[in-house]
Specification:
The complex is a heterodimer of chains A (172) and B (386). Chain A is of the alpha/beta class and 172 residues long. Chain A contains five helices and five strands. Chain B has 386 residues and is mainly α. In chain B, helix 5 runs antiparallel to helix 7, helix 12 (281-298) crosses helix 14 (316-328) and helix 14 (316-328) packs antiparallel against helix 16 (356-385). The chains are: A alpha/beta (172), B mainly alpha (386).
């Protein structure tokens, strides 16, 4: 199962595609971030009852419909990019990290992309949701780089006062 | 909201608030409520003319799919919309457009949506029209529209800068990838509503200079957008009536009367004993902090109504410090007030619990810093422009 998210979905498929065996059953997962939509809707409700008499669908519901449509389009685009026959397409809704863990229950392997800011490598290549998924997934997790794999030189030098083995002076 | 109007009626019927005090209060609140109604109509009509959709298309094109650039544009548009068309416009009209823009670009919406909800509060410091609390304070302080804006310009910029620095780091892991941009489709900005809003803004300052109530400029702007919409049947009279939102205006009036009754019966002098008197940096900081806490405990409208009389007696500085507290403070808790939150929880029908921890963590990171930096900017601003 491949977990796709905006910003990294193409890289995730590109990186995972050569690693998937021919006979494996593949499904693509996208989670509609309902928690985020509720936060936006709650901000509107926070305006103590203003705009509530409107007949139009609520802010949250309207955005939920848009988010579902855009998630379906993303997964469909992912299936096209993967170019395999019968790829499962799964759309869940809820808190992203919990839904991913839940959906991975039926899978043998979950493929996830690292997030974030490539300019600062190290512990920050996992966002909070990915971190949670890695910690709690009920199966093996394959973490892929959504773009170039970084060079070993990109690791920052060790903090001062604690020398690594390679640079330690030879003991006599 | 449902209880405030009967409660206000009860306050009057039982003679807790003498009728002459009540009429005085209603008369002083009247223009504020009219001003508010005009701005609500202005924003709603601008939406019908496609202003917000055009802003979304422009942000998508100008960002060229880069997430950090999109966040910067959301900050520019969100701060501008909040300052000129009030925080309601940002929360209700801009947020869905920003969400849709991110989704169309296939970028993660989280940083951009949170930017909107946060800026709706933090960027509502600039003008009397930006926030209902400002309108109330503007009446109470006796400042001109122009002077209000001049004093608040620096705190407004400071608050936005702090939000930028924190959100940019907080959501660093979500600002990833390159969005899919449509081929260079030209963005058609609806000229007429933009021109009307720009002229209304100029009108605020001009009326303020010639000592006419700026509410008239807002009303003129609203009429200039409503009439063509009615003629072209883009909006019906009912739509306009709904945009005016009589029930909300009644709520503001009722709330004003209740707070006036509470102040009249002694709480006002109790409050003025509790808040710091003076315009020193320390007093301003303390006042902003008290206002922020009160806004989260009892919601920001009652908070500002309670604190204003005591602050206005000292001068413009303390009034503005109260505004910094009640406007930016609501980012601290989930929906701006614990009371609203509890009430909301019991009403919840959705299965998904809101992301309390994320919202609270972001609030805890931004609000104290925004309070500190914006109040410091206010203190500087008062020294420079007096």
């Amino acid at each position: 199962m491949l977990w796709l998210a905006e910003g990294t979905w193409e890289g995730c498929i590109d990186a995972a595609s050569p690693l998937i065996p021919e006979d494996a059953r593949v499904s693509l997962l996208y989670v509609v971030p309902e928690d985020l939509l509720h936060a936006a809707g709650a901000a509107a409700e926070g305006l103590i009852g203003r705009w509530r008499s409107r007949p139009q669908p609520g802010l949250t519901e309207q955005m939920e419909a848009e988010a579902t449509a855009s998630g379906e389009a993303l997964v469909a685009a992912g299936a096209r990019l993967l170019g395999r026959a019968d790829v499962g397409q799964v759309i869940c809704r809820g808190r992203v990290e919990r839904e991913v863990v839940q959906a991975a229950e039926a899978a043998d392997l979950l493929v996830a992309a690292r997030d974030g800011d490539r300019s600062r490598l190290g512990p920050h290549s996992l966002g909070p949701a990915t971190r949670f998924v890695v910690d709690h997934a009920p199966c093996s997790v394959l973490l892929v780089w959504p773009d170039e794999v970084p060079d070993v030189d990109s690791i920052p030098p060790p903090p001062k006062g604690r020398r690594s083995d390679h640079s330690a002076p030879p003991l006599r | 909201m449902v209880v405030s109007v009967p409660a206000a009626a009860l306050v009057l019927a039982l003679g807790i608030l003498p009728l002459h005090v009540a009429t005085e209060e209603a008369r002083s609140l009247g223009p504020t409520i009219g001003f508010l109604a005009a701005v609500l109509v202005l924003a709603e009509m601008a939406k019908r003319d496609g202003l917000f959709a055009a802003a979304g298309a422009w942000m998508a094109a100008a960002s060229r799919g880069r997430p950090v650039a999109l966040l910067a544009l959301v900050f520019v548009v969100g701060s501008t919309v909040t300052a000129i068309l009030s925080l309601d416009a940002t929360v209700v009209l801009l947020t869905p457009v920003v969400f849709a823009t991110a989704a169309t670009l296939r970028l993660r919406a989280r940083p951009h949506v949170y930017a909107c909800t946060h800026l709706a509060n933090s960027a509502s410091l600039l003008l009397p029209v930006s926030n209902l609390t400002n309108l109330l304070a503007y009446r109470a302080s006796g400042l001109s529209f122009t002077r209000f804006g001049t004093i608040m310009a620096l705190p407004w910029l400071a608050a936005i800068a702090v939000e930028w620095l924190v959100l940019r780091r907080f959501f660093a892991s979500d600002l990833v990838g390159r969005g899919v941009t449509d081929s260079e489709r030209p963005v058609a900005l609806p000229i007429y509503p933009v021109a009307v809003i720009a002229l209304t803004l100029v009108g605020f300052f001009v009326t303020s200079i010639v000592h006419i109530d700026p509410a008239f400029a807002a009303a003129a702007g609203a009429i200039a957008l409503v009439l063509p919409a009615l003629r072209s049947r883009k909006a019906s009279l009912r739509d306009v009536g709904r945009a005016v939102d009589i029930s909300f205006l009644a709520f503001v009036l009722a709330l004003g009367l209740i707070v006036s009754a509470v102040s009249y019966r002694g709480l006002g002098s109790a409050v003025s004993h509790l808040v710091p008197h003076g315009s020193s940096l320390w007093s301003l900081l303390l006042l902003a902090a008290i206002a922020a806490v009160l806004a989260n405990a009892i919601n920001n409208l009652p908070a500002v109504l309670l604190l204003l009389p005591a602050a206005a007696a000292v001068g413009a500085g303390p009034v503005m410090a109260v505004l910094i507290g009640v406007n930016t403070g609501p980012n601290l808790t989930y929906v701006g007030s614990l009371a609203t939150l509890l009430w909301r929880r019991t009403l919840r029908r959705h299965e998904v619990e809101p992301p309390m921890s994320e919202f609270l963590r972001l609030g805890a990171l931004t609000v104290p810093l925004v309070l500190l930096v914006a109040t410091l900017a206010l203190w500087l601003s008062l020294r420079v422009v007096g």
